[in-house]
Amino acid sequence: MSSILVSLASSHDNTDRATVAMVVAGAAAASGQDTTVFLSADGAWLGKTGEAEKIHEEGFAALADLITGYVEAGGKVIVCSPCANKRGITEEDLIKGAVIAGGAAVIALMADGAQTISY
How far apart are alpha carbons 68 and 111 in whole angstroms? Predict the structure, then answer.
């Protein structure tokens, strides 16, 4: 099975980019790919419960629904640890299926051959 890594560094600052990234991640997970979304920079906000509910890009499903569907399809979420710390996001704040981890977790996925796309 292929491994897919979607790197997302946007949320409130670029709702279109955040939404499209989750559409792609959701499609990957729904098609049976081992899929991980890495939330960094402003994207880290999407790892916090309640933040995705504030975003609904016109023409797309609500971001919160896209994220829920992605996780329900087996998708994993890694929130960048320094990015979470900078924003005051703790393990207790995380959405279902998310973990806080450092860059080493992302590098391990890439070293194992994950196909990567960045938003």
Answer: 28
Mean local confidence (pLDDT), 26-53: 97
Q: Which amino acid is at 39?
A: L
Per-residue pLDDT at 2:
72
Q: Strands (DSSP E) along the chain, which ranges?
A: 3-8, 34-39, 76-80, 98-101, 115-118
- pLDDT class of 1 with cuts at 50, 70, 90: low
Domain residues of the chain, as ranges?
3-118
Q: Name the CATH superfamily, with its identifier, for domain 3-118.
A: DsrEFH-like (3.40.1260.10)
Residues 6+ apart with CB under 8 A from 107: none
Are 71 and 52 spatial neighbours (Cβ–Cβ below 8 Å)? Answer: no
Q: Which among 73, 85, 82, 9 is positioned nearest to 35, based on CA atoms? A: 73
Average pLDDT estimate for 78-84? 98
